[in-house]
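Question thread 4412

I'm putting together a teaching handout and wanted feedback from people who do this every day. The idea is simple: show students a protein as raw sequence, then show them the structure tokens that encode its fold, then repeat with a second protein so they can compare. Below is the first pair exactly as I plan to print it.
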Amino acid sequence: MRVLMLPDAEFLDRERGLLQRIEIGLADEGVRLLHAAPASTVDPSSSDAPVVYATPITYYDRGLPLTLPLRLSALARAIETAAPADQSTGERIVDIVYALGASTWGMALGISQRLGARLVIEVWSASLIDPAANMWGRALAARKVDPRRRPRENAPTFLTPLAAVASALARRVPSDRITHVPWGVHPADIGPRAIDLSRCFTVVLLSSGKNPRAVEDAISALALASERIPTLLAFVDAGLAERTPIWKLASSSSVGRGLNERLTVIAELESRRELITQADVLLIPEPLGELRSIVLDAMACGMLVVARKDPQVEDLIQGQTAALVSEPGPHPLAAALIALAEDHDRAARLRASAWSYIHDRRAASDHIRVLLAAFDRSMASALN
């Protein structure tokens, strides 16, 4: 089986670790991989190989809609040059086009139709349900152009790590085209990791930035918690700091109460997993409605997760994987942070149960097994 992995720039920047785990796992199963990196993310002056378990190519991810045919032709040539098929055996250049990132779906549909490959789309967010349903209709519309095609030829298969998203999408797309594929990570050897308030209490803020009130609540919660935890330090993503008034809020006497002195900005925070997972707490002040693998990595590495309740994300389980807050506002978030900082036994139990959840139910090997089975079903459907 040959698989073209087609991430967009946002997904690639945020989920490099996940992509690498997928590539390693599939390569170990004998899958031949091509990794198409968006040209906007490739540094021509860098000599570092972006991938080692897949054949790397580049595609043009930016351009007006009218340039899509040209960009598709360039991608097809890059694929044929990098991994030519053995024509004597009837081998396809690509069997599966695996689209990761909503902005690449149009490119993925076009290249799958051009190469006669199956299209598989990752839907990791509830916000992508409508676009996924539209993509289903768009793919089926190709039959009107070419009546020789079977009704579902080149129609996509959808994968999602969220059971709630799978259920919602099944009301818009035939359920046999949807597979629940939970993401997996590697559980770390966390050992006896205890919070030491005499040293510091470190909190990483994870927010979409789309909800200004959630950002304000988070800054205020951190400020309130710091009044009880003098060693509290907070880390935020540089992109989030640029998109929202975090510094203004942190320096405000009514909201941040001088939190700016405890705040550190980190560029590409979500891609720096080895650094970030050394912190004590991952704070999620809003229901994101989507899965980000940093949440699973946090649990796998012994971080404590404090989050608003999110009915879309089944991995956030009160008392088992996270300390969940149902009430809005900064005070419940601050109370949850303080409780974990001051009750070491409670923190240790939560850390251990979250790690066990990842070990038992979200291992990277399970992710690869279910993903490969989904690819096989997609291939089999092409023969029916």
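The second pair follows. I'd like the answer to focus on this one:
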Amino acid sequence: MDYTKAIETYKESLIEAKSLLIDKDKARLNHILELEILEADFNIIWNSENKKHLSDFCYDLIKISTHQNHISVDTTEKTAKILSDNIENMVFGSAYSTFELLYNQTNELIGAIHGIGPITIYDIALRLGYLRSPHLLPEKKIYLEGGACTAAKEYLKNESIPTKFKHIMDIEIFDKLLSLPNYKIEDFLCVYSKVSKVQGEDQKPFGNYSIKGLICGMPKLYHSQFYRRNKARMNEIIKNIK
């Protein structure tokens, strides 16, 4: 199985996703760039004199990804209120020297809320970690859920990996994937599992479907809920993406 080709295609998708953001007619709200989009938006809000958009940002911190489409408005608003009350400490506080500490604090704050599951806790912790300077991201462990677990089971030829629940593994065992940033390995595996289903066993990994599926299959940025909620700041957000 040619994982080298798959990884290179994934990297090409990252580059293409960024280039598409500047084109209003083609721009997509791509999960590949959700961390960069949130970072740009947060910096604009936090550096403004009036932080009135901070509560809206915490809503987007939860709902920017399709992973969280199922979460009800009431649950999202309750979770966003807790995050808004704690975001200054979690982004700028000195108590978090590792991603694991930030993850544990996120779990402590929102883990008991009905409708907030393990994948949401991880996603939010990852997004909060990306807002910190320097970024606070997984270093030694990889956090897997659902499709990513399925892909990891195939990659490692390990049938004992569970596929329905959170699974934390040492990152070093994903040796061929280490050319990717650590936090992108989980994303790569998740995407790989979806592309594999479409292409079938004989075409894995990543054929022509990959870039189209990763980028062009996403909703247009200017048609997305994120855009509708942040229309007034959208051009500034895109301009400030690093």
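Top answer:
Good format. For the second protein you could add a caption like this: The first helix runs from residue 3 to 21. Strands lie at 141-144, 167-170.
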